[in-house]
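[Discussion] Sanity-checking designs against the backbone

I'm trying to build intuition for which residues belong where. Below is a structure token string of 81 positions. I'd appreciate it if someone posts a full sequence so I can compare it with mine line by line.
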């Protein structure tokens, strides 16, 4: 009886953890799968939090590179004293 209860309890927790993992994957996105677009069946994939963060990080890198170029240009200018 105790073994059956333990097995049942273990399976219950396993099901709860699997459901929690599925929800996290759906909300945050699976690691390495942050590209927004179309899936294999032709359906548009929803933008997950992970995908949005990945996109935001890329945009910040582009802006940072542009600002560094502008800063270099300003520093190269000769200002009269």
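Best answer:
Here's mine. Compare freely.
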């Amino acid at each position: 009886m105790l073994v059956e209860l333990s097995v049942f309890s273990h399976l219950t927790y396993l099901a709860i953890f699997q459901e929690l993992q599925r929800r996290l994957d759906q909300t945050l996105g699976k690691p390495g799968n942050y590209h927004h677009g179309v899936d294999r069946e032709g359906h548009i994939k929803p933008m997950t939090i992970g995908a949005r963060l990945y996109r935001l990080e890329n945009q910040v890198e582009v802006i940072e590179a542009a600002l560094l170029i502008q800063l270099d240009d300003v520093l190269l200018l000769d200002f009269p004293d």
